[in-house]
Amino acid sequence: MGNTVRLQLLHALREHPLTVSEICEETHLPQCTVSRQLIILRRVGVVESGRVGEAKVYKITDRKIAEVCDLVLSILVEQIHKRSQLIEE
What we know:
The chain has helices spanning 4-13, 20-27, 31-43, 63-88, and strands at residues 18-19, 47-52, 55-60. It is of the alpha+beta class. The longest helix has 26 residues, at 63-88.
């Protein structure tokens, strides 16, 4: 879960299910990278896939996963802010 690409994918999927193409569009990542990381996230049970018509869509398996990612993001932002203040001093 420490992989930045995987965190980007989870952030993209937080609101609603998306196709690989939609994830690529939102994250500006190449399709091969998105597909590879989605496979890993599926294997560990963080995301699941399903079909809507002919489109394969991915979604987060548990809303708590998005909450944890939000918490990690807020901690990282705080650390960056503290470090930038130290540099300015």
